[in-house]
Amino acid sequence: MTPPFAHLRVLEVAGDIAGPYAGKLFADAGADVVKVESAGGDPLRRSTACGAEIIGDAALFQYLNASKRSVQCDESELLRLAAGADVVIVDRGVDDGRLEQIRAAARGAAVVSVTPFGRIGPWADAPATEFTLQAACGSTFGRGYPEGRPLAAGGRLGEWIGGVFAAVTAAAYARRARNSGIGEFIDLSLFEAMIITMGGLGVLTAQITGPGATSAMPPRHLELPSIVQTADGYVGFCTITGQQFQDFLVLIEKFDWLDDQELHLLPGRVRRRDEFNAAVLEWTCKRTTAEVIEAASAMRIPVAPIGSPDTVTDLEQFVERGVFVQNPAGFVQPRPPYQIEGTSFPERTAAPALGEHTGTVTWEPRTRAAGTPIGAPLSDLRVMDLTAFWAGPSATFVLAALGADVIKLEGVKRPDGMRFAGGKPPTEENWWETGSIFLAVNADKRGLTLELGNARGQDLARRLVAECDIVIENFSPRVMANLGLANDVVAEANPAALLVRMPAFGLDGPWRDRVGFAQTMEQVSGMAWLTGERDGAPVIPRGACDPIAGLHAAFAVMASLEQRERTGRGGLVEVTMVEAALNCAAQMVIEHSAYGAQLSRDGNRGPVASPQGVYRCQGEEQWVAIAVATDDNWIALCDAIGDESLSSDPALASAAGRRAAADRVDAVIDAWTSRQNPAAVAQVLRDAGIPAAEVAVARDLIDNPQLQARGFLERVPHPVVGNLLMPSMPLQLGDNNSGPWLKRGAPTMGQHNADVLSGVLGLDEAEIADLATEGVIASRPVGL
């Protein structure tokens, strides 16, 4: 029952959300996490989103820093602690000179730096907030309706995402360091992490469809159907497949629309959204949320209540599974989003007072045998990847990038559905090989087809389990047994294998068999509640939950590997998609429990900066995002605008005063930006120390100078779509970087059938040919 990381020492020299969330993930799994704080302490000690008066430390700080120790120390003591650490986490508060000293002291450890743009490149020192990073990464531009302003996602999701990326990679390189004596420096860019997870993958879509391609979709739109009113609140729908949309029309009794081909495509629904929304509301507003959910669930239409600060903790699925637990400070918080068979999480202790453990940390320097690099940190592992769509493949993408041999297994009759989305039309040859998200999250994997509805296919799958360290899937809970791969079957085939399961809502509970996609998780978790206009319905952030779930699954893999290496046994690892989302949306629940606050959406305004907004610039669909995070930023903005009505008004000297006059302030800024180019405005403001960014269209990221300087977009060959610039990992490595992250493109369907069946399972050519004849393996989907 020893916690997975009980042997690990983590030194955290970071504040705010991203770095401390990485530290929290380690602390939850049993690591000894020591937080080094300056005289003023982590800024989150005295910060809330709701503006509540703080007695002691703020609730979000206590959530992120429970079970850690806090020290205040001079540089010599800091370096002594670094010498005893296995993992060191730093942020932009640690300058390059100090970082070099820490790296030298922590030789043989995994040192990860989490900063807005990374440590190198022309934007390395540029001021930024989550809000301006969302604008720069391609997320903000496409959210909202065409007649309105682009809309940022609420909740600072990119910072939580950056924290998970930091924890996964630090755990992987700490594992390698323990086995080889070779440490690593990991330079993580939040900007790049957000491109991968929050809307920037359109940079790949544009290359696939070509410069002359036109879209029937306006530059901004919301999903239809999505979140709508009911008789007593809101409910959220998600219709990913054509069948789900047909069923939805039956649900709302619009039988006359079943043959309306325009409405069966999202662009048509967007064009006719007033008519469509009116019909939906006519049906939903006559029914309670519970009645709508019961009817939709019976038809297996993805549906969910909309989580809000005062409702999400009482949802029956979360109550039955014990998802929400007490923080030692007395408020409610979500538990870690994964469970590992045969282990337990340590009892949570209260977040430390500032400097509470100064002088008590007795870490001795780690002594590691000098060695040579042993390659990528997971190069000794083989993964059987049964995942599909975006969440599961995001997990295995990270494992593959870190060196694991990932064998992606697809059905002949039902391959990964992401092959058919975001690419070329069905009139093109091999069009199923052009799906942009499929290409983005399946690079570096080997592709195998096996029809698991066939007895021979199931037998081969069980034989492959015996050759793998990890089996990972993200089906609904009942599917694995139907495929002949129930938990006990996997355990019998390979007792040392880790079976990682990624259900939407969990392997048990009243919602166990409900269908759920990322949009559903964003609706139920509260992410949507924090996104949208103040007087409008909640809006889903769109997609972030998929990679959030995948990254937490990758971290759970790293934790469960630690247990396996101690015991020699595998076992079940459950990583629940909605619980990963709840952890990254935790502030809403925490501040409601601690302060009675009802955090909600407020357009592009937010608690971190004021003014904060997206402002119109010269030209069609040209916008700039500005976040005045400090009073000094405000003085600099007034100087840039040159408007005395702002600079001379004492009521605007404080953030509270500016929030009270937000409409007036925004009007002045709009008048100034509307006469200028957005890139020029952003550059002028950044030079003055103000976080600002052009609101980027994802396709234009290909020309971004920061990404070019860091080599984030890597040219990868593919036999169907050609040599594309692909988003890679949001990391630069230090002295041991062996080259690009992406060694090969995503596999075509069944591309490595012979390679895997002969090289791993020992089949000969005749046996492989017989499997193809029988339809157990194939190189194209059935019927195409």
Radius of gyration: 26 Å
Strand portion, in percent? 5-15%
Q: Approximately how much helix is present in the residues?
A: 25-40%
Distance between the termini: 50 Å
Q: Give the rounded overall mean pLDDT.
A: 94
Full CATH superfamily name of one domain: formyl-coa transferase, domain 3
Number of DSSP helical runs: 30
Q: Summary?
A:
The chain is α/β, with parallel strands linked by helices and 784 residues long.
List the helices and strands and how they pair.
Elements: E1 9-13, H1 18-28, E2 32-36, H2 59-65, E3 68-71, H3 75-83, E4 87-91, H4 96-105, E5 110-115, H5 130-136, H6 157-180, E6 184-189, H7 190-198, H8 202-209, E7 227-229, E8 234-237, H9 242-251, H10 266-271, H11 273-284, H12 289-298, E9 303-305, H13 316-321, E10 324-326, E11 332-334, E12 338-340, E13 382-385, H14 391-401, E14 405-410, H15 436-441, E15 446-449, H16 455-465, E16 470-473, H17 479-482, H18 487-493, E17 498-501, H19 518-525, H20 545-567, E18 571-575, H21 577-584, H22 586-595, E19 612-616, E20 623-627, H23 631-641, H24 644-647, H25 655-660, H26 662-673, H27 678-687, E21 692-694, H28 705-710, E22 713-716, E23 724-727, E24 731-733, H29 753-759, H30 765-774
Parallel strand pairs: 1-2, 1-4, 2-3, 4-5, 5-6, 13-14, 13-16, 14-15, 16-17, 17-18
Antiparallel strand pairs: 6-24, 7-8, 8-9, 10-11, 12-18, 19-20, 20-21, 22-23
Helix pairs in contact: 1-6, 3-4, 6-7, 6-20, 14-20, 19-21, 20-21
